[in-house]
């Protein structure tokens, strides 16, 4: 009997299996079927964008349910090549070709592809977890789908609908289900990509787009594991500026942080915390995750105003904290407040929830939280 796949939930308190989940199960089946199983509608308005009418793959059948023999105790967060990937094309008519689950491997792309020449591309990140009964859970995939639609509008790209996105994710996960780590040993990281794969020379949107998904089993993102991480506040470089693309998950946002991150890691820090580009005093986010500050039992986090990625784990933390009676503020948070906080933590799909043990600011001021 094929393990089912649930697709809705809230926040995981700690790796590897989310505790705060509201679930609905996918009926056990060997053949992936072309529809969504009771997918809830997003709770916030989705902007009107061009959406490709994808015909999703329905031809994948796998009858094995074994789990790959890996060193699950020392998995880390690096690429492990799995069996299959999902690929669908979208042409000038705005319609995707029939999506396919294909063997994982290189793809052919023109040297003049829009994604290579002008950075016209987006990606998402989400996870699947294995329960003790063998069934598999997805963490809020409809939220990733909605965020990709928003990002595609900003980058002048067509986007798959929420239903198409989630169905493609389910197909990819079930095709690679033997790579989902055992309960308590990690998760299956899912990487959807949307890119301008068509050839262009002049600056313009690409004439063709590719939507694809690959997966990899992962462990902890930071080398510290679940121990507190050490951050340095960046005082020279900025991640984003008003009017830019900091609020969407475009590929260019991440290449630009590599230099500051490399310098920080060479000095022994886990990652970099960025300040706003206007006043150089308000918190934005860490290279790969959002940040929260706790003072007197009030949880504060930088507001989403176009320069900060609207993290799905961030949103989940806010919802769960409010449901538990905590006061949560989304507002400008100064670096001085950070240095006087009772507690600081980061959230993200890759990092899940990571406590912060120390903050270094201006190279001379170090603040530590004692756990």
TrEMBL record:
Q: Which UniProt keywords apply?
A: Amino-acid biosynthesis, Aminotransferase, Branched-chain amino acid biosynthesis, Pyridoxal phosphate, Transferase
Instruction: Look up the record and name the cofactor or cofactors this protein needs.
Output: pyridoxal 5'-phosphate
One biological-process term from Gene Ontology? branched-chain amino acid biosynthetic process
Gene3D superfamilies given in the database record:
3.30.470.10, D-amino Acid Aminotransferase, subunit A, domain 2
State a single Gene Ontology molecular function: L-valine-2-oxoglutarate transaminase activity
Q: A Pfam family for this UniProt protein?
A: Aminotran_4
A GO CC annotation recorded here is: cytoplasm
Which residues are recorded with the post-translational modification N6-(pyridoxal phosphate)lysine?
Answer: 249
Q: Does the keyword Transferase apply?
A: yes
Its Enzyme Commission number? 2.6.1.42
Catalytic function, reaction form: L-isoleucine + 2-oxoglutarate = (S)-3-methyl-2-oxopentanoate + L-glutamate; L-valine + 2-oxoglutarate = 3-methyl-2-oxobutanoate + L-glutamate; L-leucine + 2-oxoglutarate = 4-methyl-2-oxopentanoate + L-glutamate
The UniProt entry, under NCBIfam families, shows: ilvE_II (TIGR01123), PRK13357.1 (NF009897)
Assigned protein family: Belongs to the class-IV pyridoxal-phosphate-dependent aminotransferase family.
- PANTHER family according to UniProt: AMINO ACID AMINOTRANSFERASE, BRANCHED-CHAIN-AMINO-ACID AMINOTRANSFERASE
This protein is called what?
A: Branched-chain-amino-acid aminotransferase
**Species name:** Setaria italica
Lineage summary: Eukaryota, Viridiplantae, Streptophyta, Embryophyta, Tracheophyta
Underlying gene = LOC101764742
